[in-house]
Amino acid sequence: MTLLELRDVTVTYRGTAGEVPAVRGVSLDLAAGQALGVAGESGSGKSTLAMALLRLLPRDARVSGEILLDGEDVLTMKWGRLRAVRWASASVVFQGAQHALNPVRRIEDQLAEPLLVHGLATPAAARRKVAELLEQVGMPAWRARGYPHELSGGQRQRVMIAMALACSPRLIIADEPTTALDVMIQAQVLALIRSLIAEHGIGMIMISHDLSVLASMCDRLAVMYAGRVVESGPSHEVFQDARHPYSRALAAAFPTVGDPASRMAPKGLGGDPPDPRHLPTGCSFHPRCQVSLPSCASREVELWPAGGGPAPHTAACVRVLPETAGAQGEHGEEPGAHGEEPGARGAVSGRPVEEVQ
Ligand SMILES: Nc1ncnc2c1ncn2[C@@H]1O[C@H](COP(=O)(O)OP(=O)(O)OP(=O)(O)O)[C@@H](O)[C@H]1O
């Protein structure tokens, strides 16, 4: 059953620095109980997309498209309904969220708050639930009486995960949930998140710049570049057999979890992501692409079937189009003659696909 459907979601910031098209026409689906990882470099639009899901964007952001949570469009929901949906249906764990705890309130009061605000428990039942939540995240119940400053960073992030679980949501949005933690604690917190979502059948959207972490945590991956999804498919396929050159570079830029050899020589990705206010023409990735074709400078390709397996796998690259597969690139990596690729028509050709996950 589909838990979350994004249809052509576009977010533009209209600030003093001009219009910033941060997210451009993203369509993705998430099945109930499934984990989807959204990867991309800094500035690719991941956090903007995550915030848009629960309308948490600043006032200068304009959002269009559809964000259907259990079939209801978050973007057109009345304010009262949106308040109920936040926490109770979907909750968020942000990067460095542990700093969001109020330093002068006891842990138990902060953990009980969403339950009491949403009328989901009496004060006595909320207290029992708090003890249960702390145990679920591997902390003793007596910690409830303490204050945030008595906890380590990892413990505070565990409290935030407990808070996200408090109202038994069907969806958790985790935006770089472990970035502020040291490596050992990161691994523990990631393992905790993985076991909790599996145990409770919670759907998750996890945002990270680290494709290897996402591949180890999620069923499917979507790779964003300059505000667009450029590849989407089963985690193992996207991580080990990426079809978009950007996803391949991103996968090579990080060591593989559990593979000491890859840790020795992670390959960097050259150049910088584009300024969204001044995107290159054609494919936004073409100035950094090692296998671009001449027409990539003027041609932006829609997501197109790219995987060999049974699960949907799509990539927005001219290389996956049947008429250009095998053509030689500007850098000469592919066999064949250099020059204009066969079938290039100066625009998106053929039938693009809707994302189905
Ligand atoms: N409030 C804002 N006003 C104007 N532009 C913004 C605002 N917030 C983000 N942006 C711009 O939108 C683009 C996408 O930013 P976003 O934070 O969503 O990317 P990201 O992939 O999450 O990056 P990071 O990993 O660094 O958080 C960037 O160019 C960013 O500068």
UniProtKB/TrEMBL annotation:
Keywords: ATP-binding, Cell membrane, Membrane, Nucleotide-binding, Transport. Its main location: membrane. It is a peripheral membrane protein. SUPFAM superfamilies: P-loop containing nucleoside triphosphate hydrolases. It comes from the Bacteria. One of its GO terms (molecular function) is ATP binding. Gene3D superfamilies: P-loop containing nucleotide triphosphate hydrolases (3.40.50.300). Residues 322-357 are annotated as: Disordered. It is found in: Cell membrane. InterPro entries: AAA+_ATPase, ABC_Ni/Peptide_Import, ABC_transporter-like_ATP-bd, ABC_transporter-like_CS, Oligopep_ABC_C, P-loop_NTPase. Signal peptide: none annotated. Residues 330-343 have a biased composition (Basic and acidic residues). Pfam families: ABC_tran (PF00005), oligo_HPY (PF08352). Residues 4-251 form the ABC transporter domain. Belongs to the ABC transporter superfamily. This is Peptide/nickel transport system ATP-binding protein. It comes from Streptosporangium brasiliense.
